[in-house]
Specification:
Blueprint lengths: L1 E8 L3 H10 L10 E3 L2 E5 L11 E6 L9 H5 L6 E3 L2 E4 L4 H13 L6 E5 L12 E5 L4 E6 L2 E6 L10 H8 L7 E4 L8 H6 L3 E6 L2 H13 L6 E5 L2 H6 L6 E2 L14 E6 L9 H7 E14 L5 H13 L2 E15 L2 E12 L2
Parallel strand pairs: 6-7, 11-12, 11-15, 12-13, 15-16
Antiparallel strand pairs: 1-3, 1-4, 2-3, 5-6, 7-8, 9-10, 13-14, 16-18, 17-18
């Protein structure tokens, strides 16, 4: 059958394979093939493949050494993998149970199968799950060489944003001050710290902050990550007393106003309500990574207008460096990112 494959020159194949493996994008059920000097690497999600790779549809032979869920079911089920968990989105409980049984009986290296039981909801953006196979909802996810422990029942995490997180954190320079306003378990904060930045990560979800601290230690960047539990507006205003570094030592918190040279605002739907806080965090020059959900007729306009209104009022020049569609979100709605440089007006 035809599957999406990354096509690279054969001499670049090992480097490409490592990068795709780090992002957990290689489709293990198919063979990597070579033809006419090109290497074809089957991938699980073509939308998540990093920019710069050529993705083509191509016949790929099944790996004879593995039994895939489709071999047991007679059809190709749709699922996501996160660490050793397979995630389903099935409305029919009987079909979901059948797929889950096939997954654990296949050769996939997974132990748990979950089915989505609700939409993401609430301030902490978590959802309910039906546990179909396995014993729990905690796992360790690997992405671009980093490890993230997390509990899907307690925190929000999307593996589909791996490429976008990598794009942003690759821009971080050594000694930068990076402020992640909605840090979760650390998928922006930890790679930024690994590049030599000093990072502050804030989240209203206390469990997410606990995982952020654990993941900072797990990835060897505990000395450069400060994890804070609370509403970021209270943290910046100085009314939050939850200020702990990831090695478990209570910080004497600096004054964060004017501290940041880079700010991540990954809270689509409501990031605009935090723009006053973001601008107060910005230093004399600061790059803002602003995420939004917008209608496809004008995907960037609402966010850009909101940023300009707040930032220019506070004396900044605004330069939109990148307008990027991250992914489709719903019919006629897009998840987008604006990379915006704020420079204090002379």
């Amino acid at each position: 059958m035809e599957v999406p494959c990354v096509r690279v020159p054969r001499e670049d194949g090992e480097e490409a394979r490592r990068e795709l493996a780090d992002a957990d994008l290689i489709a293990d059920g198919y063979e990597i093939t070579v033809e006419d000097g090109w290497l074809y690497i089957p991938v699980v999600d073509p939308e998540a493949v990093p920019e710069g790779f050529d993705v083509v549809e191509r016949e790929a032979p099944d790996r004879e050494t593995q039994t895939a869920p489709a071999d047991l079911l007679g059809f190709d089920p749709s699922y996501e993998r996160l660490g050793d968990i397979v995630i389903l989105d099935e409305d029919d409980p009987e079909r979901a149970a059948r797929i889950a049984r096939a997954v654990v009986e296949s050769d996939l290296p997974v132990e748990t199968v979950l089915n989505k039981a609700s939409k993401v909801k609430g301030e902490t953006r978590v959802r309910e799950w039906d546990l179909l196979e396995g014993e729990g909802t905690e796992t360790v996810h690997r992405e671009y060489g980093f490890e993230y422990a997390l509990d899907l029942a307690a925190v929000y995490f999307s593996p589909r944003l791996a490429t976008e997180r990598h794009r942003v954190t690759e821009q971080v320079g050594e000694h930068e001050h990076v402020f992640d306003m909605f840090a979760g378990v650390g998928p922006f904060a930890i790679p930024a710290a690994a590049r030599g930045a000093r990072v502050v990560g804030v989240d209203v979800n206390e469990r997410a902050v606990e995982y952020l601290r654990e993941n900072a230690r797990r990835n060897g960047v505990a000395d450069r990550v400060t994890a804070i539990h609370g509403d970021v507006r209270d943290v910046v205003a100085g009314t939050s007393d939850e200020r702990w570094s990831s090695d478990g030592v209570r910080d004497v918190a600096p004054e964060y106003e004017g501290w940041a040279g880079r700010i991540v605002m990954n809270l689509p739907h409501s990031a605009d309500t935090f723009l006053d806080t973001a601008v107060s965090l910005a230093g004399e020059e600061c790059v803002l990574h602003y995420y939004d959900i917008a209608h496809d007729e004008d995907p960037f306009g609402p966010g850009e207008r909101a940023i300009r209104e707040v930032a220019t009022t506070d004396g900044y020049d605004v330069d939109v460096e990148t307008r990027r569609v991250v992914r489709s979100y719903a019919p006629h709605e897009l998840n987008v990112c604006l990379d915006v440089r704020l420079s204090r007006s002379a």
